[in-house]
Amino acid sequence: MSEPNDQPLRPRGPVHHDLNALSSNQFEQLCFRLIRLEFSNAIKPSDVRDGGADALLPEAGGGYARAWQSKHFPGRINWDQCKESFEAAQKNFGMEHYTFCFPRNLTDRERQTFDRHFRQVDNPVKVDFWNGEELQIRLTDSPEGQRVAKAFFADPQADMEAIARAAEAGGRLSTPEDALDRLRPIGGFLASADPFFSYSAVVYETEQPGPPPSDEAVMSVVQSDDGLTQRIDVAPRDDEAMEFYGPELQLLFPDTKDGRKARQDFLDALKEGRPTHLDEVTVNFTRLPPGMKSSEGRPMKGQVEIGPSRGERPRPPAPWKAHMIARTDKGSDEVNVDLVPAADPPEGWEGMIEGGFGGMRVEMLFRRTQRGGEMTLNYVHKLDQSPIHDQLRALRFLNALIGDGELVVQDRKGGRDDLVLKTQPQAESDQARAIFALLENLAAIENWTGEQFTIPSEVSAEKAQGIARVAAMIRREGTPVSSVEVSLLEDGLIRMRQGGEVGISQDLGARVLGREIHLGKTWLQLRSYKLTELGPDPQHADSTLVRLEPSDGADDFFQALHKPEVSKRPPPPPRRARKRKRGKRKRR
Predict the structure, then answer these.
(1) Quick one: which of 71, 187, 434, 464 has the most CB atoms within 10 Å?
(2) Could you tell me which residues come within 8 angstroms of residue 122 by beta carbon, excluding any fewer than 6 positions away?
(3) pTM above 0.70, yes or no
(4) Nearest to 446 by CA among 495, 398, 389, 382
């Protein structure tokens, strides 16, 4: 009997992945996979060439809560590039939180430089970083992170574990429990093999129908022999999986009469969206999920069934910085609207992007049909807390949109082709006309006075009429009056009895949406009038109250309104030139 070996086992130590050895593109992909583990609704921008962000976290109401930027600097960090990316992201996305991803830990000096550039007291955006240690933890501390690591790094220990699982699968098999035990290592291998796709395996008698693949499956690998069929179904874990590793294949038809006919039948079926069956066609997979990589580039002959899509999951539409132009018989107008993906599209639709401007909400919905795809645009306007001029601009756009003509949707960043839609003529409602008139009147008052108003949830008809009267006076820069009452001292009364020319000026105010505002000064110039003395003025001693009316047959007086002066802050005083001290020059 041999003596036990007391030699202590050497510790294996933590797994460390060489992030510095990755290419910039690989590092960016790895960071995005790790971001999606914690923030499942994170997206990639439609164009990352100069946008300043490699990943974005959309907010439900529009805009972005957070952005990430991968900077693969194994050596010296290029701080100018970092600052350019941050400034571009602020301009393009306006996020609240910005995170850099570095492949290594920063030195103390680099950390101080980072703080100096990005953590100023007056910076409204929170800026931080994930360094090499942070990324290593995310790659090793969870099964999901380990799957990401396996996609980018070789793991000898994992290979040994795979061999052990294969040996386990060859054990005893005499009861259903034994079968389940043999399936466990296979399931463990499939579950850990790929961070992009999940794999499920089924075995059934070939003569029986067997369980159908899940709705999420994009492909199945099937093998039948000895009366049994084995099938592995492949389903993407997220939308990026299809972007990078979605199956792509070539169908090779023989250059014969039957082959050319089969090829044309296949193309017609794809065009018309109908199922078809192909016999003895050669299939060559040019791209496969990582777990099926060994089958790439190996042509195989077999049968191909083309049927209604069950497993394909639509990619969510990318954000769209849209410029919308309405050109109809009602007029022409345009607005900018930032559209972002919605978390929950309405029932019956597969994707939606939405956004708003000036109380107007825009929804662009997408879904697939047998003959391709369908898209629709929905608009609705509701008075809100947006600036009056923005709401008025949105209503002008909607008013043009209800005419007969077209709507053109352009991409302000230039990443998409123009979308041209025919508009459907609609009747303008009385409510829409009333809201439009209210906003136009408030905009006229704002332009005249410099005041800014916020519309309450409800505006009564009486208040709307009062606002309309004030706006009409402003547009005419005055108002006609049929009479005016003034209080005069004795000497003034004597001059007016003699019929002299009179000028009357006073400050004019109004109450608009519960606020007292100054409209300016009025001026009334009277050359001909009828004077009626009303008696002593009860408000002012030694004064008489009189009424002035137009002479018989004359038009009403016109009381002019002069715009109030808006106080402006004086410009800062000019900087004094620094005086140079002049010294005496020594003669040599």
Answers:
(1) 71
(2) none
(3) no
(4) 389
Give bridge partners of residue 205 from the DSSP assignment: 228
Within a 13 Å sphere around the CA of 231, how many CA atoms are in the beta-carbon half? 18
3-class state of residue 439 by DSSP: helix
Dihedrals φ, ψ of 573, to 5°? -65, 150
DSSP 135: H
What the chain holds in terms of domains, given with CATH numbers, is 19-152 (3.40.1350), 194-306 (no CATH), 320-428 (no CATH), 438-562 (no CATH)
Q: Which of 343, 412, 289, 322 is CA-nearest to residue 42?
A: 343
pLDDT digits (tens, 9 = 90+) for 81-122: 999 999 999 988 889 999 999 999 999 999 999 999 998 767
Tokens 């399931």 correspond to 187
Torsional sign, CA 352, 353, 356, 360:
negative
On whether the CB atoms of residues 443 and 521 are closer than 8 A, the answer is: no
Q: How far is CA 114 from CA 102, 441, 534, in A?
A: 12, 51, 81
> pLDDT tens for residues 285-304?
888 888 777 778 888 776 77
CA 2 to mean position of chain CA atoms: 71
User: Do the Cβ atoms of 395 and 436 come closer than 8 Å?
Assistant: yes
Q: 3-state class of 57 per DSSP? A: strand
